[in-house]
Predict the structure.
Amino acid sequence: MADIYINVKKKLGKINREIYGQFSEHLGRCIYSGIYVGENSEIPNVNGMRVDVVEALKQIQVPVLRWPGGCFADEYHWKDGIGPKEKRKKMINTHWGGTVEDNSFGTHEFMELCRQLGCKTYVNGNMGSGTVQEMSEWVEYMTFEGTSPMADLRKANGHKDAWHIDYFGVGNENWGCGGNMRPEYYADEYRRYQTYVRNYGSKIQKIACGANADDYNWTRKVMEIAGNYMDGLSLHYYTLPNETWDQKGSATQFEEADYYRTLKKTYYMEELIQRHSGIMDSFDPKKRVGLMIDEWGTWYDVEPGTNPGFLYQQNTMRDAMVAAINLNIFNQNCERVKMANIAQMVNVLQAMILTEGAAMVLTPTYYVFDLYQCHQGAELLESSINCGKIETEQGEIPEVTQSASIDKDGKIHITAANLLADQRNTITIHFGEEIPKELYIEMLHGDIHDKNTFENPECVKKERLKESKIEGNCVVLELPPCCAIHLSCLV
Ligand code: AHR
């Protein structure tokens, strides 16, 4: 049993749309074959982008897309990816699987993808192995409207108008794959590089490389030295079912104890946000700098028989619960969390979409993003929960996760999940003095192992929940095990 209390009169701040952001890297089959198949492909495409994938992503209103990495970003030299495709340099993607990167997807193609998706752009620059000049020229190439060497080059390459960059990342994981730097060194370099990320048109929000999970020292040093020069500080935290990177565990073969351990490790996100935010508060009490969780999600062993460097994994209802928990946590911390980008959009890690040739399946995680899109741009409402606890091998977690918001039309949205693997749960939602009306509830549920495959692509999908009743100021729901919902109503 769970009681959720909503204070419809108390708004706690805007839930930035970018919290529902995505990440696409030149890694495995994310960009190539997952999103981009080229103009001459037999797979239906518009300017090289798969129609099926783009249409599916439009349904969940992707607000922002991060590109080109990840670790790839600090090895990427943008000039290799412009101009006539047949002349573009080929290179080995040394970091991810040793495949040939033909650079056929570059800056113009990324901007075209964002145009088709109707989303904001988040470009990640190369600080690890690139120069200040290279980064500065990329920004000039993309955003300078007038006459200049880089703007003229863009025009010569067929794009007259400047694009807009909404977010620009100065390096990625510079404590690791992005150069193995110490925080003091990174912070000084960040100050230097960001100086030349010029605002030629509308303002670019600059994002500094943030901590690896609980590296609080990184956050402290980077905020102290460079906090005044950034708009956002990133944070990366992945949910691994096991402790070790060489035996992370299977995406599909797991026991109930593994399921609960995974959820417990997901809840660690709450502590990470609170502690990193606390440090940021001491340098930035007005919360001007956003915490950008630009890599999050589950990370398992790759699917048997696939290239270990491609990070291809299946996606089950366990992943749906991980997404449901994380997104509620981000909503509830929207004062500081201004963006989050799940890793990654297609065919890599906790993906929305899996593809095989011309076929595509939507994952359980996709449907959670579908259920939760109601919160994009809405105002967080004060809410609290009283529910039973689940004992996991690593401590307790609540049986139910939730968050609530009110949109610009006055509609209330509640997203919740019953995390119990095999028991139904009665949820009572209390609306204070208000009487809920015009109830609409959609849900996703299944066995913890349920997944969509190319043979059975609709095993998990969204459906209406009809077993609910309004009792005075409350809504009472019977949720099946392992179930996420979106409830909307007016009061
Ligand atoms: O998302 C996969 C990789 O994880 C990214 O390239 C890197 O930033 C992180 O370590």
User: Anything to note?
Assistant: The chain is about 25% helix and 30% strand. The first helix runs from residue 51 to 59.
